[in-house]
Amino acid sequence: MMRFRWRGLALHAVLVLALLVFLFPFVWTIIMATNTTADIYRFPPKFSFGGHFFDNVRHVLDNVAFFQSMANTAVVAISTTLLVLFFDSLAAFTFAKFRFPGRNALFVILLATMLLPAQLAAVPQFQTMALLGWVGSLKALIIPGAANAFGIFWMRQYFRSSIHDELVEAATLDGCGFFGTYWHVALPSARPALAFLGIFTFVGSWNDYMWPLIVLTNPDHVTLQVALSTLNRAHGVDYSMVMTGALLAMIPLVIVFAVFARQFIKGATEGAVRG
Question: Which residues form the ABC transmembrane type-1 domain (predicted)?
């Protein structure tokens, strides 16, 4: 009995330590955002909160078009997330529940694309956007991100285990076509998986930096991460201002996660159990 008690205490101690390690970067960001850069450089380091947060916020707003770039980022992130949820779930349902020639080969090719680094696709993708005349436009961020291999793989695994073939056959016998079965049978049962994929996609799109930096040549269309990168001056970095901008950029992500956290955790745990 005592052995199990000590094992439980050790497990909780490890979990608490892991939580502290995980939270430290966020707490340190807040500390840096509420102090001045001089306080940050001080030795020994200052680990207490300061009173300069609103001054730093004002400096951020004076140096970058924060709200305009945040609006651009919100348009891209929301549009990309909605398109990914629709196209990925539709393709995943097709792969999971319908047999057609070449299905397995196509799925293997789809999985193979996950092995390629995103940097390899940057040049041909930019050339495509240039041919379409979308360079500098938000469409160059939204359309290429409208579907991805991970989302299709994730939703396919969920559909295969959560929707029985008999249910699809019953819907077909009741007169539902392919899209009707997808809309009325598949989607309602996949809400946890969709919530997980939606948050995963939204966060990835919100934090994307490399592709917007390459393709957004119009200053009025830059996203938040690209705008915040301009706070890094060539002759010195005001870390308090940079951290304040990063902290402000995290607020929408925290709100989104707080709203969908229950479905997100449910989808992640069910996906782990279902395999």
Answer: 70-260
